[in-house]
Amino acid sequence: MIIRIRLFAGLREALNQHSLSLDVAEAATVGTALAQLAELYPKLPLTGLAYAINRQYVTLEATLQPNDELALIPPVSGG
Amino acid sequence: MQVFLVTEAVLQPEPLRQLVSDPGHGAIVLFEGVARNNFGGRATAYLEYEAYPEMAEQQLALLGQQAQAQFGIGKVAIHHRVGVLQIGETAVLIAIGSAHRGAAFAAVAWLMDQIKLVVPIWKCEHWADGSQEWVGQR
């Protein structure tokens, strides 16, 4: 199934793109999607992140559904 | 005017003041977070903010609700700017209307702390020496 990944700040710069599509197994978790990303893009800095599925914060164990939007959220620094 | 907003436009305090004003309020607190010319003593040329705008506005609204429940304030409005900001420009604007000032002062301090923890917005320091760095505070 296909999910959409959103990238911001340093992650966006590392791949020079705001988002990408990823083909993951049915019932894949955030953790398994990240492992796939790490293999595809070894240079992507994937440590210290928070995660959101469809704009809600989730943990690495959260399960993905087709067409979900998974956002990789580096340490925030607004304000 | 949207109550919780992420925008590239220059932030204006007056519309937020109107959003939170109420005849039952004895206090309006307006807080402006402003682009500073240094970070930890290192000279900054300008700042750049990036957001996950849909989620950031949702998180700001959630924080507003939490602040109302926790501090008993009346109305809250929060606008955050993104894009390139020159030194001295306003990055974030919080307006709180409240029956009494104490709750509003406490709530604005709490809101700023929470924004820096959970709202998906990122600041890039463009240093005076020409280099740049995304600043993470968590």
From TrEMBL, chain A:
SUPFAM superfamilies (alphabetical): MoaD/ThiS
Matches recorded under Gene3D superfamilies: 3.10.20.30
Origin superkingdom: Bacteria
Nucleotide-binding in keyword set: yes
Keyword annotations of the record: Nucleotide-binding
PANTHER family: MOLYBDOPTERIN SYNTHASE SULFUR CARRIER SUBUNIT
Family: Belongs to the MoaD family.
The protein, known as: Molybdopterin synthase sulfur carrier subunit
Gene name as annotated: moaD
UniProtKB/TrEMBL annotation, chain B:
Pfam families: MoaE
CDD domains listed in its UniProt record: MoaE
Signal peptide positions on this chain: none
Origin: domain of life: Bacteria
PANTHER family: MOLYBDOPTERIN SYNTHASE RELATED
Protein name: Molybdopterin synthase catalytic subunit
Organism of derivation: Herpetosiphon gulosus
Native organism taxonomy: Bacteria, Bacillati, Chloroflexota, Chloroflexia, Herpetosiphonales
